[in-house]
Specification:
It holds the Pfam family CBS. InterPro entries: CBS_dom, CBS_dom_sf. The protein has 372 residues and is mainly alpha-helical. Helix 10 packs antiparallel against helix 12. It is flat.
Length: 372
């Protein structure tokens, strides 16, 4: 979508809200695509908020606090945040996109006091990783009522492979939780006769607000195997289990592990082929003070510089096409930079596949290189 089309759409949304019309919601993924982005990040979020502010709009829930495929809508900015010295630029003239925005404010020539008063912004609006970011926090949980039969609860738990079910009378009122543990306790320790209803086996539940930090929630999830998530509207919006945590941290940590393996293999291809002085020649320009003692002191970009040099390439004795190898390494370098800046949305499947395939590729190179 072009900037003109995006601005036209935002202008139409603003006009609809001004006249009291409802606006159809969109997914976060679709919304950020209006700005030419696939994932959220510091600069992407900064640009989006800046443009929304110029159209006097904001999203709800906040686009930066929910999963990529969650639905968001729009509302008019309610906080009195207008400056008497606003720019004369109209919203239709807004041209920023996440790849060319310069967040530094500048004052008019000679206006030193104004220049000193303008503060640079651009940090993440929401620096904490909230429970609301997790997909499972927005999946309404399967639940049972206190008077539901125990057979129904057991059947649902078996059907969905759940360890527990919330016991609720409506989407806001939680009476407790029923689990395999609570059922076993009721069967063998607390009842003279076999329980028939959920209320006879339920125990007190554990919940946290959707705005809670995931790192504060982790000990509770580990202790109880789950946590119910209560949204801003007081409804139970989801349930997060230890399995959900495992999947989330796999998605966050796996790119780092893949990149670490790739970098170790790349170092091994260079190691022992160059003197300390030769390695130092490949330092990035302007970084003369950094001491290079071993290949581990080089950056990923400097590894590429070594392979780009025909004489250095010959010293590695690699039996593969140099141009292709360098091209693939450059793709890895770009992904590495994104990962090291920590994208809270994780990695796209395409980039993850590229890393995985490159690991297999470099294993094959190592095998070829070590064969007689």
């Amino acid at each position: 979508m072009s900037r003109e089309e995006r601005n036209k759409r935002l202008k139409a949304i603003k006009e609809s809200l001004d006249t009291g019309w409802e606006v159809t919601g969109v997914s976060v993924r679709d919304f950020i695509s209006w700005f030419g982005a696939e994932r959220r990040g510091n600069m992407v979020s900064y640009v989006i908020r800046k443009v929304l502010k110029e159209f006097e709009l904001e999203t709800f829930p906040d686009f930066d606090t929910v999963p990529l495929d969650a639905k968001i809508s729009f509302k008019l900015i309610t906080s009195p945040d207008q400056d008497n010295d606003q720019s004369e630029e109209t919203p239709d003239e807004t041209s920023e996109s996440f790849d060319d925005i310069n967040p530094e404010a500048t004052a008019s020539d000679g206006d030193i006091e104004t220049a000193q008063a303008l503060l640079v912004t651009g940090a993440l609006h929401e620096p904490a990783f909230r429970l609301s970011r997790l997909v499972s926090a927005h999946n309404k949980p399967v639940c049972v009522k206190p008077d539901s039969s125990l057979k129904e609860a057991v059947t649902l738990m078996l059907r969905h492979d759940f360890s527990q079910l919330p016991v609720m009378t409506n989407e806001r009122d939680v009476k407790g939780i029923v689990s395999w543990e609570s059922i076993g306790t009721a069967l063998f320790f607390e009842s003279e006769k076999s329980p028939m209803y959920v209320r006879e086996c339920m125990v007190s539940h554990n919940e946290m607000p959707a705005a809670s930090s995931i790192f504060i929630a982790i000990p509770h999830i580990v202790q109880h195997s789950y946590i119910l998530v209560r949204d801003l509207d007081k409804t139970i919006s989801g349930i997060i289990t230890t399995a959900d945590l495992s999947l989330q941290f796999k998605q966050l940590s796996e790119p780092f592990l893949l990149l670490a393996e790739i970098e170790n293999h790349v170092r091994a291809l260079i190691d022992g082929k160059f003197t300390q002085h030769e390695l130092a020649q490949f330092k990035a320009p302007g970084d003369d003070e950094r001491l290079i003692e071993t290949v581990a002191d080089l950056t990923f970009g400097e590894y590429i510089r070594i392979f780009e040099n025909p004489i250095s390439w010959a010293k590695t004795k690699l039996q593969i096409d140099r141009a292709t190898f360098i091209s693939e390494l450059e793709k890895i370098r770009v992904i590495r930079n994104d990962v090291m800046h920590f994208d809270p949305d994780g990695m796209t499947p395409e980039k993850h596949e590229l890393l995985t395939k490159f690991v297999h590729f470099i294993h094959a190179i190592k095998k070829l290189h070590s064969s007689p």
